[in-house]
Write a structure and sequence with these properties.
Helix content: 25-40%
CATH topology of the largest domain: Rossmann fold
Distance between the termini: 64 Å
Largest sheet: 7 strands, mixed
CATH architecture of the largest domain: 3-Layer(aba) Sandwich
Radius of gyration: 31 Å
Number of helices: 21
Oligomer: single chain
């Protein structure tokens, strides 16, 4: 008898098969003496479409909404149905004793496998492979310590609830918006409150009125000081600034206070996915989606880092004994000198890295024990790996320590402040290869300078004094780094204290889905990239005024995430959650139907639809910008530039007529059309 192993991707399946010594390759699987390894292609099974319940629902009509099936059905995804049939036949083999789920160790990975099992009606025993890295040792250890499949039933229930809730709310609200306003509008429990945050920020920026302010800066020869008053550093009255300047110009001051204190900064926490995406955006201007793609290759293909889709920045205590091996794995190239210091004695990390209470499914992203060979990585992989490796090393280094001195110099009754520091121990800052992120709240902070040894009561001469003028700034627009932060820490938008606590650990979306949400908002033309900034479009700003109020706030997601977490822990009931979601969906549909808002499309072109005559809209398609007829019953689309040469189109028919009377073509009109299209693409003619 054999065990069937179900991986999520072919690449992972092939690696598992190699470790398990499976060498016989079949179509869609690899077999060995004890194991048969197969794989999904992401999801093979999904929730059924509305028209799978009733053919009439293929058309979008207001009178058919809300759509609330009594029981949600599953269907095989057509594009990957061939691989589903392979998996199904393997599951039905008589020599297969039990199943080992080896999909990604998380909520979505559990759903991938369980939906396949449900569609095939799997009745035999099953087990769970739960590992945090793809190294050979991790895979071997995982197969020696398989978990009973039923231990993850609650996680599966939570995954099903999330999927069904998104179907019930997302599809119903999207169809209602589209039918009511006859426009391509969609909404969802994560993307809509994310968009709402951006729209609110844009409205703040547009309403902002800059105010002028003045500063007074004095030079005392070997140091300088800035005026500080009881109301802070900014002087809003030009007359007051001129008066202070005139009073201190050329005068002698006295050092009123010398404050010295030793300070230390702990190393930064290890990376979770969201923090890594933020850092890569700040340093390399990468999108969150690109960071995840590169990270996935470092995890799956190169096996150099641990599981990517994690929301923890800590490791459990049972990982501590592996730290020397992980350090030896990266003890090469630019890291050798840094790691050598740590390998002189056994690492003893503190709570800054090790905290069992803050690790759930997966720990922080850290290097594996795999020996590093930088020559095998491309430029992007080296950049991202460098961030992970240096952060891992930095967490194991001591605190950065320095002496900070603050001087208060009084001149004619006005206080001027100066700040400087002397480094005692570089600590973890030796490891960093980039300056720390600047906090916008530090705009008013005193500049650091070198301060000589001065004593309280010492008299000091004003060498020069000058005014500085500035303007208050509006809130900054979101970029990907700051939007990821806002999605992760959106609790401040929630009024209810209990819900605010529930959303604190999860926020809007999950670490794995936030990049996808941002890309979806861009693809649907709700936001645009302007350099590093993400800016809501007119369509996006209008949408927030059209959607139900519940979808504009993260409160709904907070409530859902709290209940989904309870279900995953076995403390909540799936049926109660879904019943409440059905009620929510019906209420949202009714709210849109009853609303009196108006939508004005701002992407109307001067090109008329060749089928119905309406002016077409310019939209983002999967293969570039498209012209799309706004009338849903028509549905005509064509590329923005050039004509539509699809079979049956007018341009296609003209092309056939153009060449069909030429002798050299004969009957092979299709080949000539193909050649003409290739020429058109190359020459534009």
């Amino acid at each position: 008898m054999k065990s069937l192993v179900l991986a999520e991707k072919p690449s992972v399946g092939r690696e598992i098969a190699r470790v398990l010594q499976c060498n016989h390759k079949g179509k869609g699987f690899i077999e060995g003496p004890r194991y048969v390894v197969t794989w999904a292609l992401g999801h093979l099974v999904t929730l059924a479409e509305p028209d799978d319940y009733d053919p009439r629902l293929k058309e979008w009509r207001m009178e058919d909404l809300p759509m609330l099936p009594d029981r949600m059905k599953l269907k095989v995804i057509k594009q990957s149905s061939q691989q589903f049939h392979v998996v199904r036949e393997l599951m039905k083999r008589g020599d297969i004793e039990h199943l080992i789920i080896a999909t990604d160790a998380g909520r979505e990975g559990e759903l991938v496998a369980r939906w396949i099992m449900e569609q095939v009606h799997w009745k035999k025993p099953f087990f769970r492979l739960w590992i945090s890295s793809q190294t050979d040792n991790a895979i071997r250890d995982g197969f020696k310590n398989l978990k009973p499949g039923k231990d993850y039933n609650n996680l599966y229930d939570a995954a099903v609830c999330r999927a069904e809730a998104d179907w019930l709310v997302g599809l119903n609200v999207t169809r209602t918006l589209t039918c009511k306003f006859n426009a391509q509008l969609n909404a969802g429990r994560v993307q809509t409150p994310t968009l709402a945050m951006m729209v609110a920020r844009e409205q703040e920026i547009k309403a902002f009125v800059p105010q002028p302010y003045w500063t007074v800066r004095v030079s005392f020869g070997d140091y300088s000081g800035e005026w500080r008053g009881p109301k802070g550093s900014r002087i809003v009255d030009k007359g007051q600034a001129d008066e202070i300047l005139a009073r201190v110009q050329g005068q002698t001051g006295i050092i009123k206070e010398v404050k010295k204190e030793t300070k230390s900064e702990p190393p930064p926490l290890a990376y979770d996915l969201t923090e890594l995406q933020r850092d890569a955006n700040r340093r390399f201007n990468w999108s969150a989606h690109k960071t995840l793609d590169v990270l996935q290759d470092l995890y799956e293909r190169h096996k150099l880092v641990t599981y990517p889709r994690t929301d923890s920045r800590y490791i459990p205590s049972d990982i501590v004994p592996t730290l020397p091996l992980r350090l030896k794995g990266i003890n090469t190239g630019p890291y050798a000198a840094l790691v050598g210091v740590l390998l002189q004695k056994t690492p003893k990390p503190g709570k800054r890295l090790v905290d069992d209470s803050k690790v759930s499914d997966h720990h922080a992203i850290i290097p594996t024990e795999q020996a590093l060979d930088l020559s095998r990585l491309d430029a992007d992989e080296r950049k991202l790996y460098d961030l992970i490796a240096r952060r891992f090393i930095a967490v194991l280094y001591p605190h950065y320590r320095y002496d900070q001195t603050t001087l208060t110099t009084n001149v004619q009754g006005e206080d001027f402040y100066s700040k400087g520091r002397v480094v005692i121990d570089q600590g973890w800052r030796l490891v960093q290869n980039a300056p720390p992120e600047k906090d916008e709240s530090e705009d008013d902070a005193l500049p650091e300078q070198t301060l000589n040894d001065h004593q309280k009561g010492e008299k000091i001469q004003v060498k020069s004094a000058r005014l500085g003028k500035g303007q208050t700034k509006p809130p900054a627009r979101y970029n990907e780094a700051t939007l990821l932060t806002a999605m992760e820490h959106c609790g401040k938008m929630v009024a209810d204290e209990e819900l605010r606590e529930a959303i604190k650990g999860s926020g809007l979306g999950t670490p794995a889905t936030r990049a996808e949400i941002i890309e979806k908002l861009i693809h649907t033309s709700y936001i645009e990239r302007h350099g590093k900034e993400l800016v809501p479009t007119s369509k996006g700003m209008q949408l927030i005024g059209l959607v139900p109020t519940a979808l504009r706030s993260p409160e709904l997601t907070a409530n859902w995430e709290q209940r989904l977490a309870d279900i995953a822990r076995g403390k909540g009931k799936k049926a109660e959650f879904i019943n409440d979601i059905r009620k929510n969906a019906a209420e949202m549909v009714q709210a849109v139907k009853a609303g009196d808002a108006v939508y004005h499309a701002d992407n109307i072109t001067k090109t008329k639809c060749p089928q119905c005559g309406r002016y077409m809209l310019l939209v983002n398609g999967k293969k570039g910008r498209m012209l799309s007829c706004p009338e849903r019953s028509c549905g005509y689309r064509q590329p923005e530039k050039g004509e539509d040469y699809r079979p049956g189109s007018r341009a296609n028919q003209r092309l056939i007529a153009q060449y069909s009377d030429k002798e050299e073509i004969g009957t092979n009109v299709g080949e000539m059309i193909k050649a003409a299209l290739e020429k058109k693409q190359k020459t534009g003619k």
